[in-house]
């Protein structure tokens, strides 16, 4: 046994000596934030603005990147593909980097209809590793047999990936966005961001909010409002929280309290929704300096 131990020690010493004899020299390549890209990525008028925003919020904003930056994940590849075995489309996403001619307008969209709603302190703490600016980010849900000539697509305004946030509209259409499209972008960007923060526990869900509803109770789509649930398919703590955030940031208060609104007595007969609404509004204001209803009231018309 002792002989074997000394042989092993000798082998290890030989490896150490061998390694130490190799010459080691530093790389002459410039170091970058993530080892792949460096800022600025070009010499456009907006590049200095990208560098400033990236440094301000401890992230890196890219309009040049490769497919794996969008599609890579720990457990899945989110891109659509054609299943040759079953001869059908597998649902997923299609994405392309931003058109450099319109990144400036895309940054305007981000600053005026997303970033402005949050404090610099919060953004500095919670922005992801990267922000990817896209010209195309579409969801493809077609799953019938055969390859159609034109795939049905749903535009994705904002998307939360494993280590990034992606934002669409980096193309010529950003110059002619309708008020409806701008409002939809705002709603989606804010919701995706806040849901990301909750999922990654960068913000906490209010215990006062989650204690109102008995999520294990037997309920139906017909009586869910009595339990303070807004959507029957989202009757979990995480799903319920997401639906309240979405309802508030995408709807002016006057609509919430009007007939058909979730805070109107005809809907909220037991005032359970109002109670949870108030808890959520106060929680975001007091803990994170975020006025959810002010975001909902900020509608372009």
Q: What's the short version?
A:
Helix content is 39%, strand content 12%.
Describe the structure.
The protein is an alpha/beta fold and 301 residues long. The protein has helices at residues 2-21, 47-56, 67-71, 103-113, 120-126, 179-199, 207-210, 237-249, 253-256, 272-288, 292-297; strands spanning 60-62, 81-83, 88-90, 92-97, 130-140, 153-155, 158-160, 164-167. Strands 1, 4, 5, 6, 7 and 8 form a 6-stranded mixed beta sheet that branches. Strands 2-3 form a two-stranded antiparallel ribbon. A hairpin with a 3-residue loop joins strand 7 (158-160) and strand 8 (164-167). Residues 5-23 and 26-33 have low confidence and may be disordered.
Shape category = globular
Order of helices and strands: HHEHEEEHHEEEEHHHHHH
- Stretches with pLDDT under 50, minimum 5 residues: 5-23, 26-33
Distance between the termini: 84 Å
Give the DSSP E fraction (strand runs of 2 or more residues).
5-15%
Number of strands: 8
- Which value, in Å, is the CA radius of gyration? 25 Å
Largest sheet, strands/sense/barrel: 6 strands, mixed
For this structure, the quaternary state is single chain
Helix segment tally:
11
SSE diagram, text form:
Blueprint: H1 2-21, H2 47-56, E1 60-62, H3 67-71, E2 81-83, E3 88-90, E4 92-97, H4 103-113, H5 120-126, E5 130-140, E6 153-155, E7 158-160, E8 164-167, H6 179-199, H7 207-210, H8 237-249, H9 253-256, H10 272-288, H11 292-297
Parallel strand pairs: 1-5, 5-8
Antiparallel strand pairs: 2-3, 4-5, 5-6, 7-8
Helix pairs in contact: 6-8
């Amino acid at each position: 046994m002792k002989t074997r131990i000394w042989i092993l020690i000798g082998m290890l010493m030989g490896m150490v000596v061998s390694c130490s004899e190799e010459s080691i020299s530093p790389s002459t390549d410039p170091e970058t934030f993530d080892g792949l890209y460096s800022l600025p990525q070009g010499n456009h008028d907006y590049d200095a603005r990208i560098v400033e925003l990236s440094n301000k919020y401890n992230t890196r904003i890219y309009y040049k990147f490769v497919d794996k930056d969008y599609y890579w994940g720990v457990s899945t590849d989110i891109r659509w593909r054609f299943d040759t075995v079953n001869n059908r489309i597998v649902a997923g996403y299609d994405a392309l980097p931003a058109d450099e001619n319109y990144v400036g307008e895309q940054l305007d969209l981000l600053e005026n209809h997303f970033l402005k709603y949050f404090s610099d302190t919060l953004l500095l703490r919670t922005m992801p590793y990267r922000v990817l600016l896209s010209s195309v980010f579409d969801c493809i849900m077609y799953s019938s047999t055969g390859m159609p000539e034109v795939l049905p697509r749903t535009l994705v305004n904002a998307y939360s990936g494993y280590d990034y946030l992606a934002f669409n509209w980096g193309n010529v259409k950003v110059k002619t966005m309708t008020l409806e499209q701008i409002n939809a972008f705002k709603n989606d960007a804010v919701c995706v961001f806040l849901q990301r923060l909750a999922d990654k526990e960068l913000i906490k869900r209010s215990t006062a909010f989650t204690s109102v509803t008995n999520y294990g109770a037997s309920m139906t789509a017909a009586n869910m409002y009595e339990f303070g649930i807004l959507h029957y398919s989202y009757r979990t703590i995480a799903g319920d929280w997401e639906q309240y955030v979405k309802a508030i940031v995408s709807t002016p208060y006057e609509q919430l309290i009007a007939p058909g609104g979730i805070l109107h007595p005809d809907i909220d007969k037991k005032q359970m929704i109002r109670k949870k609404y108030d808890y959520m509004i106060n929680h975001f204001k007091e803990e994170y300096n975020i006025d959810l209803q002010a975001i909902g009231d900020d509608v372009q018309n």
